[in-house]
Fold:
Amino acid sequence: MTAYTPPPRDSAAAPIRINLLSDTQTRPTSGMREAIARAEVGDEQIGDDPTVNLLCERVADLLGKQAAVFMPSGTMCNVAATLVHCRPGDEILAHETAHIIAREGGAHAALGGFQIMPLSGADGQFSPDTLRGAIHPRSRYQPPQTVVSVEQTANIGGGTIWKKAALDEVVQIARQNGMATHMDGARLLNACVATGISARDMAAGWDSAWIDFSKGLGAPVGGVIAGSHDFIDEVWRWKQRLGGSMRQAGVCAAACVYALDHHVDRLADDHANARALARGLSQIQGIEVQQPETNLVFFKPEGAGVSGDAMVKALRQRGVLLAMMDGRIRACTHLDVSADMIEETIELVREIVRGA
Ligand SMILES: *Cc1c(COP(=O)(O)O)cnc(C)c1O
Structure:
């Protein structure tokens, strides 16, 4: 797997007009900023911030879990979760493209002493059979396999949606083998909006699940992880240890509560924009596009005579920001991307291909 290529930071380049780099690029809307300004706050670390408490109750309820805790990032949700589920030397099973393997700075090995068994499979998902095949009998020779992790949606897989039946089967296999289950739900609500399946149903049976607020939901920071009371107590200890306990975090949580009220249903617009982008790109001779299921569009321009890097650079010169991810270009739709911007992007790609 090739590394994430950071976007070109060329100060001479045109100003960015269309930002398809990531759904983390959203800026708080004026409504969200008003909610931040009005936020009631207290000391989050001692459980005294009313807005953080409200957010945690909302997310626990949304995911159908007993309790939840507000974290500064999705990465800290993943890290704290494995630190609770595993002991040093334990093995985590996850897809080979998983964020926990490639994009968290080796945190699970560095902080927990865990190894991650990379499972293969199309579109960022492993099949229940692949999972069964990776499970070994308990013996003193092999690392204890303690947790199975999935991404809903599977980011590098193309923003693909795990089917509810497959999720249920993974939970069943994990339980039969005495393993815990963890759902990296950075974009779980995208999957829910796209399928009409509730987050509670998607996360049913999973020991831990979290959602990110700084992606498509459009808040500036934060993720919320949910699980049983006992699990969340342990997560709190790790949050403290990792330096993730905050103070008047209600200013951040207010943006997240606002996002739950105003930015969930509209994810459907992002999905429509992603489909429009994929449709337009696929009509350009030689461009190879993976049909999007949510808000991520992966494509390869090589067949049109332009390398991925050259395409990213040429688009950047025209004010469009996106990047290569694992050998393909990823375009990400979000609340600061309009249908007009999508049309313009397609036209610019067409122009670049014509000039190649
Ligand atoms: C972004 C992302 C994370 C990490 O979230 P941050 O809030 O950026 O730390 C974890 N998993 C997946 C699948 C992601 O896309």
Q: What stands out?
A: The pocket of pyridoxal-5'-phosphate is lined by residues 73-75, 78, 99, 151, 155, 184, 186, 212, 214, 223 (CB under 6 Å). The two ends are 28 Å apart (CA to CA). The longest helix spans residues 339-355.
